[in-house]
Write a structure and sequence with these properties.
By secondary structure, the protein is an alpha+beta fold. It has nine helices and seven strands. It has a five-stranded mixed beta sheet with strand order 1-6-2-7-4. Strands 3-5 form a two-stranded antiparallel sheet. The protein starts with about 20 loop residues before the first helix and ends with a helix.
Length: about 230
């Protein structure tokens, strides 16, 4: 299906010959993109609103301090996808996959980590966005050297949002337009699934790398607000 795009003016199609991982697979566009923005979209995401892309670009044009902008996402079951997260903590990522998630100490913290309290109808700053459908400012992306290829499948989007806040940009959830997806999470599953699923083990491994990399750093969004509160 994608090969049908060959021949269209200004379309450059790159199909990787093997699975090189998520961040490395996206980084093949280095040196090829020419516009102001990069539009990252997963293959299960559908754009049913004709002006979705125009709205995203328009909002980014009007707010040059935004590096990453993500739309609202509706799953096949009609529910709003929780594509917003707090910057992760490894102990909570482990706890949510075990009986510990039912203990009051972890329950509240996991709920916050998953942003269950968020009003998904409002435009707002967030820690990080799952990049199933996001617009990224190209000059920022290139300054960061693209996605971090030390991750294989997960956490490169988390890391990119961390870098955005750290470098004086904002990450914004933008529900003025919405996209649609199947809602399946590759990283879903508990302790038993961990031993059966390579993908889940990879999620834990990528999470470990992320947490080791940022273990001694404060939340960059809070630091950003402190610098810009006046």
């Amino acid at each position: 299906i994608l090969r049908e795009l060959v021949g269209y003016e200004k379309v450059v199609l790159t199909i990787n010959s093997k699975n090189v991982g998520y961040p490395k697979g996206l980084n093949v566009i280095k040196g090829k993109a020419e516009g102001e923005y990069l539009f990252i979209i997963n293959p299960d995401v559908l754009l049913r609103e004709k002006d979705s892309f125009a709205k995203l670009v328009g909002y980014m044009d009007a707010h040059p301090d935004i590096a990453i902008l993500g739309s609202k996402q509706i799953n096949d079951n009609g529910k709003t996808a929780m594509n917003v997260r707090a910057f992760p903590k490894l102990y909570l990522q482990i706890a949510r996959r075990t009986y510990l998630r039912n203990l009051s100490f972890f329950k509240e913290r996991i709920a916050y980590d998953e942003m269950r309290h968020l009003d998904y109808s409002k435009i707002q700053d967030v820690d990080w966005l799952q990049d199933s459908c996001v617009l990224i400012r190209r000059d920022f992306w290139e300054k960061m050297g693209g996605y971090d290829e030390r991750y294989f499948l997960f956490m490169s989007d988390t890391d990119m949002c961390f870098k955005a806040w750290k470098n004086g940009y904002r990450v914004v959830y933008y529900p003025a337009t919405q996209v649609f997806a199947d809602g399946e999470r590759l990283s879903a599953g508990g302790l038993l699934t961990f031993f059966r699923s390579w993908i889940l083990r990879q999620h834990v491994w990528d999470s470990l790398k992320y947490n080791l990399r940022h273990w001694n750093e404060k939340n960059p969004r809070k630091i950003y607000y402190e610098k810009h509160k006046n």
